[in-house]
Amino acid sequence: MQQRFNKHILLVEKWLIDHESVSHDQLQENYISAYDTHCTLDSPTVAAFSALTDDCATQYWLDAFYTQSGENRQEYLTKLKREKLNRS
Known about the structure:
By secondary structure, this protein is mostly helical. The chain has one domain (7-87). It contains five helices and no strands. The chain has helices at residues 7-17, 24-38, 43-50, 55-69, 73-87. The longest helix is centred in the middle third of the chain and has 15 residues, at 24-38.
């Protein structure tokens, strides 16, 4: 069974790895989509929003997401690494 990743968190992680890989417009769209999807200020939504402003806040909310969801951050980072390799 293939793991389902939170697409909003994936984009924020991608941005944290390389700020140039995600545009400001993409970050804004990600925040709006996260809010529309979750309809609340939960950790994916706030992480998506904080990526628009502050690395430290982004890290805090990503940590909150992984703690609350029980998901493994390393699996997200591995997925991003694979995607980057596949594009090369």
